[in-house]
Amino acid sequence: MPIKLEELGYDSFFESNRKALGLDNYSMSRVIAEYRGAYRVKNAAGEYLAEVTGKQMFDAQSREDYPAVGDWVATTELDPERAVINRVLPRKTLLKRKYSGRSEAQVIASNIDVAFIIESVDRDYNLNRFERYLAIANDGDIKPVLVLNKIDLISEPELDSKASHTKKRFANIDVILTSAIHSDGLDDLAAHILKGKTYCLLGSSGVGKSSIINRLLERDVIKTDAISHHTGKGKHTTTAREMYFLENGGILIDNPGMREIGMTDSDTGIEDVFDDIAALSGDCRFRDCTHTHEPGCVVREAIERGELDEERFNNYVRLQKETEYYEMTELEKRTKDRQQGRFIKNWKKQQKKGDY
Ligand code: GDP
Ligand code: ZN
User: Fold this and answer.
1) Residues 107 and 246 in one domain
2) Ligand 1 atom 14: the closest Cα is on which residue?
């Protein structure tokens, strides 16, 4: 039985773009895996190994112009196993990762509707980490849902406290409590997964992403291994799959790039998550106010009046500094580090001389 494009996530958004671009003589296919220089695409007729046309390579201005997993592409089939990608359709959402020392972001996947952002409640549980991943989701227009996993490992009062803190901080975002190994809360999670929509799981290594995916697929597709977390190797070496089709019609993308995401993000995403702070800071007396000591600083005033959480503000400042650092080029970084090194050396020297 041939599958319908809707089962792969096709909808009116892509259809209207296909029409607008006049792509009547092509098949619509979805990119389900990316290899070195080639792609696996799936459409109503089957699966193909596909390459982009020379024309498209010529037109590509940046990495973002190339196909990514999750993309809808216009294809021409060459034979039952091979196809050519003629064009990438406009994207609904885009999951990207910024690299230090490079201006271009790495495209990880596209057209994801919802990102489940996962943390383990037992150790390293940290609301600021959620904030980072939220910035990434926000930046790509992806709707976030927060998942607190491994709830079997802590006491009920402890869980209540962590859950209520999380819900308080992220009042507009759904929060789900799960235990992947005890299959607790997985129904809640599954209830967020709708037919024809695309999902991904974001979170640090070891939080239980593979375990949750295996539960959702009701079979062990992805190897879970506590030991491999330390080396960061060994996972995904046996499977080239990057897109999974769930029983209930939901689509899940999981690829190596997604697993590496998290420690870098773009400043616009941060501004969105902290849009209240960003809005406030526009009213400070000085345009370049650092919100530390300046007179007429409305951010400090809001903190003093108890309207803005100081910890949250500090996190905003820290994330911004980190982003600035990530976005510096390697040369700028080396210069900065060297200046700092020289400063410390001089300071030590002066100290010895008794100048301080
Ligand atoms: P990933 O790196 O995010 O994919 O994490 P894994 O799914 O590989 O899980 C890491 C480890 O945590 C494995 O040993 C899992 O068995 C364990 N784990 C995952 N979910 C749970 C959970 O809900 N409770 C407990 N106790 N352990 C879990
Ligand atoms: Zn200020």
Assistant:
1) yes
2) 226
Q: Atom 8 in ligand 1: which residue has the minimum CA distance?
A: 224
Q: What is the CATH number of the domain that holds 186?
A: 3.40.50.300
pTM equals 0.74
Rounded to whole angstroms, how far apart are CA atoms 221 and 211?
10
- Give the nearest ligand 1 atom to 207 CA: 3
Residue ranges making up the domain that contains 275: 267-353
Question: Which of 292, 346, 350 has its CA nearest to residue 321?
Answer: 292
> Of 88, 115, 134, which one is at a domain's C-terminal end?
88
Residue nearest to atom 17 of ligand 1 (CA): 208
Q: Percent of the chain scored above 70 by pLDDT?
A: 77
How many separate domains does the chain show? Answer: 3
Residues 227 and 323 in one domain: no
Q: Could you report the per-residue pLDDT of 95-136, keeping only the tens digit for each?
A: 988 654 556 678 899 999 999 999 999 877 888 889 888 988
The reply to whether ligand 1 has any atom less than 6 angstroms from the CB of 186 is no
206 in the same domain as 278: no
Q: Give the whole-angstrom CA distance, residue 173 versus residue 268.
A: 19
Q: How far is the CA of 181 from the centre of ligand 1 (A)?
A: 7
CB atoms within 10 A of CB 99: 12
> Which element (helix H / strand E) includes 131?
helix 127-139
Q: Which of 54-68, 231-245, 292-306, 333-347 has the highest mean pLDDT?
A: 292-306
In the structure, what pLDDT confidence band is assigned to residue 342 with cuts at 50, 70 and 90?
low
Ligand 1 centroid distance, CA of 53 (Å): 42
pLDDT of residue 264: 44
DSSP 193: -
Ligand nearest to the CA of 301: 2
